[in-house]
Amino acid sequence: MEQPVAHRPQILPGESLTSLIFRVVQYNRFELLDFLNYIRRDGRKTLQRSDMALMNVTPRSTLNMLRLSQMLEIEVATLLKASFDPILRLFAQGSDATQQSRFLAGMFTNKHRYCPRCLKEATYHRLFWVDKSFTTCPKHEIYLVERCPRCHGSIDLNAVAIGQCSKCGHTLTMIEGTTDSNETATMRWIEQSWSTLLEVAPSKFLNDEEVAQRLLYLASGKSEYFERRTVDSSVPKSSITPTLLQHARNSLAEKRALHLGLLMSLLHDLHISMSEFLVTEVPRPFVDSLTQSTDPLVQRLACVAPWCSSFERPGSLMKTGTTYKEYSDGTSSKYFMACTDCGCEYALVNDGEIQERTSFIAGYHQIMPLIHLGMSIKKVSAHLSQPVDQIQRVGAYFSTRLDIAGQVVLNAKLLRRFVTAVADGETLRSIQQWPQWDSYQAYLRYRYHSDVMRALHMYKRTRESKRQDLAARRRQVRQVLDSLVREDVNITIRTVCKMLKVCPETIRNWNCNELIFEAKRNQAAERSAHKLAKVVPKAEELFTIHQKEEVLSAQLYEFIGVGRTVLWRQAPEITAHLSLMLREHNKQVRGSDNTSP
């Protein structure tokens, strides 16, 4: 049981844990590093000033919170709410340290910023000031300041705690601040979101699957079933929906955390509060629709061909093998479908509108009335400025469907042979060479018969799901990965998809997620080795300069030109190696001091 310290300040509204620790040190006249290392977690390496930023995010990984609680007579849970630790327990409970770090990676700044007017009201550091997206004070509607108004030097925690620049002694509150009311609503939303999360946690626990399901449900407008088109139109980037689906379906090849920044930015874009998100319950039918094989969207779409027996009947379309196509003009199509009755093919275009791909509906309105009047194919072609082949195909299609100048009667035996050949995988080019055709037009009449078109769609659907030459696909992906490595471009699934013009689901169907992950890991290892080859000589140079002097961690990272936290996120093994070098150097210096006369 630790004895309480003489002066035990209470946590002030919105105060950060590091600010509280600094005030404890000030009031009790402790040495900062001595106090930090007294309350550090058992087995943790010696703490430096540079470690204080980590205490606002994951204090339990750095500090012995029970010891600090006993010394200040403040509950551990209350202390933790002066950091972002409760939020980690809300969303990343049970995750390892790596996953937890990724959950919040890149969201916080190591710079000490402040609002001059807040500081004038009460001199202490606020927790939310470390959020990079928190650029203006929602209360005073002015930009946060990160440099001294007089000497323009960077601000440290000591400066914020006493309200004076550590370098020139200038009073930090002697500045009006630059007003910006445009971002006030956003800043208030961010502040309220953080407050809500800190208040709710750790009474709840949400895993990635639940978070993604709630986001998809809210993005779909709380629809009873998942509709990809609705979600795509609601989210700001096309890559967000596949990411959420992978988490919602728990189909990731490698477990990784859903980033908190994605959650907050998406809720803000959807104009949904964090409170609403936390109380949202996703209906079971919606969850089931995320993984069911039959797409609810397709089930609600209908054929729009006026002559079709399934005209405007929901559920009359079936998905074909193609999922997504991107064209050279920047447009794209998705959800490729076909009507099983009339054979018309459809897709959803950029704006989500259903569009026919086979041109028969246009032909019905433009070409067939002219043929009905007795115009020849060549005259129709000249009149409409359309290719003769296009007129022939439309005429052949309708020759077995509409009673125009006598409906054509086909040979039932030859028609069955055509259908069987398609089902057996024979190509249309091969079938066209059969000697039974009197003319090209005769072939087209059979080719566009409803039975043949249905067989083609069914064969295509089966073939698309089974025909993939995975070895060839993997070779394609490897070629892309090799080019990314050569050009030193970051390897991500999104980058690979963009180069191959496919969607992430296709990559997953090709069983290439693991291939991409391995290449990404190898790229990181190579970059790490390259960085190590640069960083280590710089560190050795510093140790040579200070052969008889101990070197601080801050000195080392300033000399090599990279922040410790940044390097730890990018290459933790290099950070560990530098820490070992630093300890060995200082140990040798202390040893030589003890043996000197």
Structural category is: mainly alpha
| Helix share bin | 40-55%
Question: What is the arithmetic mean of pLDDT?
Answer: 84
Our Rg estimate from Cα atoms comes to 33 Å
Q: Beta-strand percentage?
A: under 5%
**Distance from first to last alpha carbon:** 43 Å
Largest sheet: 5 strands, antiparallel
Number of strands: 5
Q: Which shape, going by the Cα principal axes?
A: elongated
Low-confidence stretches are 461-468
Annotation field: number of helices: 32
Describe the protein in words.
This protein has 597 residues and is mainly alpha-helical. The longest helix is centred in the C-terminal third of the chain and has 33 residues. Among the domains are: 192 residues, no CATH class; 86 residues, no CATH class; 63 residues, no CATH class; 69 residues, no CATH class. It is 53% helix and 4% strand. Strands 1, 2, 3, 4 and 5 form a five-stranded antiparallel sheet that branches.
Q: What layout of secondary structure does this protein have?
A:
Blueprint: H1 17-28, H2 32-38, H3 52-55, H4 65-72, H5 76-80, H6 85-91, H7 97-104, H8 116-121, H9 157-162, H10 184-200, H11 208-219, H12 228-234, H13 240-248, H14 260-269, H15 274-279, H16 284-291, H17 296-300, E1 317-319, E2 324-326, E3 332-339, E4 345-348, E5 354-356, H18 360-366, H19 368-372, H20 377-384, H21 388-399, H22 412-423, H23 428-432, H24 440-447, H25 450-466, H26 470-486, H27 493-500, H28 504-509, H29 513-545, H30 553-560, H31 564-570, H32 572-595
Antiparallel strand pairs: 1-3, 2-3, 3-4, 4-5
Helix pairs in contact: 11-13, 20-21, 21-24, 22-25, 26-29, 29-32, 31-32
